[in-house]
Amino acid sequence: MKLTFIEEPDLEFGNGSRHIDPRSGINNYGPADLSHTGVRTIQIGIVGTKEAIDGVKAWLDRCREPIAPKESPLSHLYLPFPGFHTSVGFRSTIIWNGRLERTLDKRALENIATLSPLQAVQKGVELYEAELRTLDEEPNCDVIIVCRPDDLPEREEPKTNPDRPWERPRAASIGFDFHELLKARSLSGSRPIQIIRRETWDPTYKPKGRDRRRQQDEATKAWNLHTALYYKAGGVPWRMTRHVRDLTTCYVGVAFYRSTDNETLQTSVAQVFNERGDGVIVRGAQATQSKDDRQPHLTGDDAKDLLEQSLARYRIEHKTAPARVMLHKTSSFTPEELEGFRAAAEAERLAMLELVWIPREDSPRLFRQGEQTTLRGTLLSLTDTRHLLYTRGSVPFYRTYPGMYVPSALPFRLVDVQSSAAEIATELLALSKMNWNATQLDGRVPITLRTADSIGRILKHLGPNERPAPRYAYYM
Description:
Number of domains: 2
């Protein structure tokens, strides 16, 4: 048993500047693409009731100016939002165009709330989908904001085992989630969408029949939303750093999900990232659940095909091939999968293929004396191949733990690697920060698997012959 502390890895921002914290980096140096193809304007389309459209526009217009941070002595944790303006922060601004506003009838949305939960979600998606199709015909639109209906039923989460999400739920849910289903229906469009709840822009709103969701402070909301809008509009808020001696790397995440009826076999999905954070989506073949370890696995041929598809998509997007592939998988590697992935690497002439199994959890825990939790970056090596990394925990830069609950470590197992455990842990820490829906250093899983899980919940609504949109921006 060995303990190692991994220093927080840098991220790259404007003009090659570096910082460990996304918000501080944007504040001080601007986005990573500032000196090249930075997004100077974002033309927004918007769909919702007149009240919602007016409310969202008013809040985003207010975000053009600085927003004070939450009152706290933790000055590094709660940063002010600099404003979304071409002279500060992202060096970008939002442009409104009346032609890109689609107003929904408030009474039509109120009527769907009287339907059964499943029917209400389906009808709500139909109403919004029709307006998205209309906006798709309009030029000069970068991102579409969707104002989620206020009284639409929330999905009752099925009782799944959180450590084995591919297994059949123990109780049925209402079947569909508005966010997931609308995202799936919008994949054929030419613009990504951003779904916003009323709680985001209206501090006085109280949902009917349920408690108000716990809200972030206003400056943090502004940081997170504008980061997502900037990325969806084609910008690069920040990127991982790479030394000149490092091989160009493609990161692939492989996860599994069930169909909407929970009856059909699991299907694998890969999420492909490079150091810039450009993500592309690949849907693989059906998987089978092993009777031995009750985990989903691919055949050797399907594993080979999945990696070859991923690399083909990578070449299309980046006009080059990577020298190294780091593949993260949520289930263990069978001999057939190892043979398939290695065969693909040989066929694609990769200089290096590294395979890492990232289980959902592992039993060991670490505790610190005093009030603070284990430090983010703490690496516990139990054997040469079995390791646990605290990607959530107390952050020295923040001088506190930014989470609510006792953090659990991210386990990882070295299956076939040339890098050291410390090098892989450093990459995992950096990949946990490549999430453009959040700007705090409290992501637990690397972006490879975080997005592979989330896009699986969207892809399950597509037919087998429907081709998923390639850009990750359409799924987040």
